[in-house]
Amino acid sequence: MASPSDPPPPESAESLPAADPTEAPTAEPAATLGDAAEPAKATEHTASTDAAQQTAKPVATLGEPAEPAEPTKVTEPAASTDADQHTAKPAAPTPGVLRRLGRHLSSLYLEADPRGLALFRVLLGALLCFDVLRRFPNVFAFYANTGWLPNHAALFRPASGHLFSVYHLASTPGEVQLLLLLHLACAVSLMVGWHTRLMQVLCLVLTTSLNSRNVALESGGWVMVNLIAVWSVFLPLGRRFSVDAVLTALRAREPSRQLTPEQAQARWPIGVLPPRSRLPVRSLAVLAILLQWALVYYFNAVHKVGPSWQNGDAIYYFIHQDRLTHGLGTWLRELLPLSATRAMTHSALAIEFAIPALLLLPFAARFTRPLAWALGIALHLGIAAFAALGPFVWVMMVPYPLFIVARSWDRLAAFVAARRPRVEVRVADSPGGASLGRLVLALNGLERCQVTSSAEERSVSARIHDASGSSAWLTGGRALYLISGGWTAPRFLWLVLCLPGVRSAVGLLLQRLADGGPLERTAPRPLPRAGLVRRALGWAAQGVIALLMVAAASQVLAENRAIPKRLKPAQRPQWLMAIIEYPRLFQGWSMFAPDPPREDGRVIIDGRTADGRKLDPFTGEAPVFQAHRPAHVPNDSDWSAFHMRIPEARYANNYPYFRQLLLHYHEHTGRPEDRLVAFEVWYGSRHIPPPGEAWPPPRYRLLFRHGQVNDPGVPREHVGRGDTSNRVPNRPPRLPTNRHPE
User: Between these two residues, 62 and 494, which has the higher pLDDT value?
Assistant: First the structure.
């Protein structure tokens, strides 16, 4: 029988969710299930004496992780017999085959390493920053009431049955830009890991709202960004290499280091930080992201059954769509022989089939998953070299760090650490100096720094660890550059600290901090039953993930042509459809399938300005009647979707707003002489011929006109028959409320 002084038995690794690892610094618990990192719990001091306060200052062992000091405990006499005390405890039984298999599968499909979560957070934040920044030039045309889809049109004639967007609160371009700046600030905060949980939720709401503001431009890239924002909100992305992790480490000092002001005047130890969270995070969200990416590649591959994918001409047709290609792609396609494009076609198809298998294989994951990551990077960078597909290319490369197993991260960390020098850091023996020392230890991700305090030091000094002790102590920015050797960020980013003016400014700042008081706050006392509440919230989160997975699986069955008819749901409840449609979590994956489009085209404005000039607002010059995009006109995915969809009959009810956009064009440029007094809006298209054949002449279709255009420039012999009427419809039919555009 165990005495009351014995430590409690560890929790079973099978219990989900388990306690946070920072709750017990002396032993690491089982992996958490979607639980966020929390400050370490303070162990109460039951016997704190003056003699204990005069103990020697702890020093972090060079190159080893810092471990917390063992807190003093008061034990009570155990009420047990000698026989009970000398009874040998039975050995733990060896787990059976099924249990070992379950643990293996759980580690492969449910767990993510905290280091992978950190890199995933950085990539996700960078992706969201890119997605927000690319919208700024298009605010006037696409996201404000000045554009061709104003708020009242989007709300009163919605293109979807369930639609919600915070961006519908902004009407003018200035209001939209202000909201975009707030969105950008949240994305940057997520990237650095500041208030990570809150920023995950805000980024989810703002991202899905931005992509719901103008669903006529919706693409597979937008949907993938929505999906990764939804699935990732259930993961503790701030557990490692984040501002939150550093603040948690600083606040979670053991109670022996939390001294009263009187005690602090006599002794300011550097302190020993609690061990960093190294346990993997266990959550259904990891499985959801893994399956999501495998399904996207799989269905995109199995749907490519058209002749051009079979004979190898698909990439040829893809790179000859000028509404998608950019300047580099236009230049590269002229250099590639037909044999190269055919090799690229077969390679792309093989990669799309290989990645799902490599991600889901239940063995050799430390080899197959990095290989899948490398193939994914090669595939999507190859696409990015030719076409502007918005966020799709970049979002597909974001989640792979989650799939890398812990053993691979361990080897990578050892490889990087072996190439970083060991650094000795000396801080001032003062309240501010102690805080700086703790900050160095908290940032010491690669564990290459040893920190000591000295009464002779005035701020912070550092030197390369040398057994002979011959290296010189450096101060200011140069000391901080040496300390950066223990950080995970590339060292070349910190070379600026060594510049003459910068290193002096850094030295003055460190001096001021060392002369001041402590930088961090003390650790807050844990609330009663806080662990129980966290576990309940963790289980609730897993239930929500399971519900989302069921809804997503239903959508996969309904939207993909490769699913047999007998497996498709005949009817789904409205609440299930609302779960999918509000955050735009569609699951139909058939990009450039069964064949890439054989037609290319764009909208051409034959306009007349107030000063008598011919002007196409889309190019800023006189209209050029050719179906392919002029080389000097920039291209992005929003404009590509606009040129492809606005000629469709289902968007005819947007033509009155399109006309207003053109009439207010001079307000966008700020030039009154650019005011359009008359214009004709044409759609020019051309058929992409098979390789080696001549290009046929383009065809033109009139969408609508305003005023009288004298001397029209469109070649009348190439105008299609019976394509449109010559005036804008006054009361067009309501758009169908169906799923997102293909």
Answer: 494
Structure token digits, residue 261? 């002001």
The 3-class SS string of 242-301 reads CHHHHHHHHHCCCHHHCCCHHHHHHCCCCCCCCCCCCCCEECHHHHHHHHHHHHHHHHHH
The gap from C-alpha 122 to its chain's centroid, in whole angstroms, comes to 7
Task: State both tokens at 626.
Answer: 């050719």
Instruction: Note the pLDDT tens digit of each residue in 296-343.
Output: 999 999 999 999 999 999 999 999 999 899 889 999 999 999 999 999
**Residue range 627-637, pLDDT digits in tens:** 888 877 878 88
Q: Is the pTM of this model over 0.85?
A: no
Contact call for residues 430 and 399 (beta carbons, < 8 A) = no
CB crowding 635-653: b at 16 or more within 10 Å, else e: bbbbbbbbbbbbbeeebbb
Radius of gyration of the chain (CA): 31
Residues of 564-583 as b/e, b for ≥16 C-beta within 10 angstroms? eeeeeeeeeeeeebebbbbb
Terminal-to-terminal C-alpha distance of the chain = 68
**Three-class SS of residue 611?**
coil
The amino acid at residue 134 is R
Euclidean distance between CA atoms 207 and 333, whole angstroms: 34
Query: 3-state class of 708 per DSSP?
Result: coil
